[in-house]
Amino acid sequence: GDDAGGRTTSRRRRRILVFPLPFQGHINPMRQLADALHARGLAVTVLHTRFNAPDPGRRPEFRFVPVPDGVPAGVAASGDVIGLLDAMNAAMEAEESAALRGVLESVLADEEQPPAACIVFDANLLAVPRAAAAVGLKTLVLRTASAACLGCFMAYPMLHQKGYLPPQESKMYMPVEELPPLRVRDLFYSSRSDQEKLRNLLARAMEAVNSSSGLVINTFDALEPAELERIRSELRIPTVLAPGPLHKLSSKNTASSLLDEDHGCIKWLDKQPPRSVLYVSFGSLASMDPDEFLEVAWGLAASGHPFLWVVRPGSVRGSEDIQGFPEGFEAAVEGTGKVIRWAPQQEVLAHPVVGGFWMHSGWNSTMESISEGVPMICRPQFADQMMNTRYVEKMWSVGFELEGELERGRIEEAIRKLMEEREGAEMRERAMELKKKVAHCLKSGGSSQIAMDKLVKYILSL
Ligand code: UDP
C-alpha cells in the first residue's frame, strides 16, 4: 500500500478523523466505516479514549491519537454506561483543559497528513460538536443503532408529553401508535431514577445530530424504508445515508475485538451437521444472574442440539470469569456443546452448520445474523435491544422473543421451536430472503454502494 505506517499518505488527498464511543458495539461499525472510506482513498486518523483503547498495531495504515477521557477506574469497571458517558463527556468538555479541542488542534496541525475534511463521531460524544466548531472542523454523525432507534430519540419529547415515558408498569404492552410496531416496553428507556438523565443525554445527542453536516446510519434502505423516510423528512440535515450493513463493506473484519477471538471454535463447527448448531451470545455488555446461568446451561443441554456458547468474562454477575458450571454439565454436553470466551462472530454466523442464534438483540448482532440468513431467539435486556427484538419478531418475522423468567424447560422449548418446528423453518426462510436483500444492496449499483459513493463525494466536497 501507499501508506504503510500511516506516513507516506501523499496519494490520499483528504483525511477523515473518526471518534467512536469506546464500546464494542460502537467501535466495530466505526472501524468498518473507516475501512470502507480508506478503501475509497481517504486517509484515516482514529481518536480514542484510554478506556477500551484500540491496538494501533492491528491497523498500521491508520493514525491513532488518544483523547484524555477522565474516566475513573471505578466507573469504568462498574458497567454503569450512563455514568461512564457522563464522566467522559464532562472530562472532554472541561473548559479549563479544553481537552478535546487541544487534541483536535494538534491533529489538524500535522502537516505530514492530508488536510482533514471532517470528523465522523458517535453522537453520544457530546463534546465533539463544540470542540470541532472551535477549530473549524465539519462533523458527520455515525449512528450505530437502527433507524427506528433514532426515530424513537426524535420522538422523545412527544413520548414524555403523551405519558408513554417514563414507562408505567400497567401500560407496558400498550401500543405506541405514533411509532408502530413499538409498544411501551419496546421503547428505549432507563430505570426510573436514571430516566431524566437519559432524557437529557438524548436531547443533547439529538442536538449534536442536528448540528452536523451529515448523518450516516448503519442500516440499509430495504430494511427500514419507512423509518429512514421519516428521518429524512423530519431532520434538518443536508445528508442522511444508510450504507449498511457496514460489516459487509469492510474486508478485514476481525481487527477490533477487545477480547481475543477463539478461532478454534471454527474447527469444532466444521465437524457438526448442516444447520444443526445454535450459536448463543449476548454481546459485550449484557449479563445474567448465576441462577439464570444455570438455567441456560441446563436448557441448552436438554435441547439436544449442538451449541456454541459465548460466556464472556463478567457476563455472569458476581463472577469474573467462566466458572461454576453446574455439576455434571460438562459431562452432559461433552461432544455436543462448546463454551468459549469470545467468538469470531461473523465467521460463526456465516458457517453453514449454524442454524439459529440465541442473542440479546444488539443492533450489530441483529444485522450480522440477518446478513447470513440466521433466525433468532431474542433475549433483550436494555437500551435499543427491546425495540430490535420487536422488529425481528413483528416487522421482519425472522425470530421471536423468549420472554419472562429464564427457566430450563422454556429454554428447551424455545430452542426446539427455532431449530425443529415449522415456525422456526418459516423464520429461517424469511431470514434467507433478508440475506438476499443484503446481498442486493451491497452489489455494485445497490443502495448501500450508492450511499458509500455519495458519502465519499460529500466528504470530498466539505
Ligand atoms: N461479538 C464478537 N464476538 C462475540 C460476541 C460479539 O465479535 O463473541 C461482536 C459482534 O459481532 C458485534 C459486537 O461484538 O459486532 C456486539 O455488538 P452488538 O451491537 O450486537 O451488542 P452490544 O455488545 O453493543 O450489546
Can you lay out the helices and strands and say which pair or pack?
Blueprint: E1 15-19, H1 24-39, E2 43-49, E3 63-67, H2 73-78, H3 81-93, H4 99-108, E4 116-122, H5 128-134, E5 139-143, H6 147-154, H7 156-161, H8 192-210, E6 214-217, H9 225-234, E7 240-241, H10 264-270, E8 277-281, H11 290-303, E9 307-310, H12 329-332, E10 337-340, H13 345-350, E11 354-359, H14 363-371, E12 376-378, H15 385-395, E13 399-401, H16 408-419, H17 422-442, H18 447-461
Parallel strand pairs: 1-2, 1-4, 2-3, 4-5, 5-6, 6-7, 8-9, 8-11, 9-10, 11-12, 12-13
Helix pairs in contact: 6-9, 11-16, 16-17
Bound molecules: uridine-5'-diphosphate.
Q: Can you offer a commentary on this structure?
A:
- It is a single chain.
- The chain is of the alpha/beta class.
- It has 18 helices and 13 strands.
- The strands form 2 sheets. A 7-stranded parallel β-sheet has the order 3-2-1-4-5-6-7, sandwiched between helices. It has a 6-stranded parallel β-sheet with strand order 10-9-8-11-12-13, sandwiched between helices.
- 47% of the residues are buried.
- The structure holds uridine-5'-diphosphate.
- Residues 23-25, 28, 257, 281, 283-286, 310, 342-343, 345-346, 362-365, 368 line the site of uridine-5'-diphosphate (UDP).
- Belongs to the UDP-glycosyltransferase family.
- GO terms for molecular function: quercetin 3-O-glucosyltransferase activity; quercetin 7-O-glucosyltransferase activity.
- Keywords: Coiled coil, Transferase.
Overall morphology: globular
* Strand line-up across the major sheet: 3-2-1-4-5-6-7
Average predicted confidence as pLDDT: 92
Note the main sheet: 7 strands, parallel
What is the CA-CA span between the terminal residues?
26 Å
| Rg from Cα | 22 Å
| Tally of helical runs | 18
Structural class: alpha/beta
Q: Level of helix content?
A: 40-55%
Number of strands: 13
Estimate the strand proportion: 5-15%
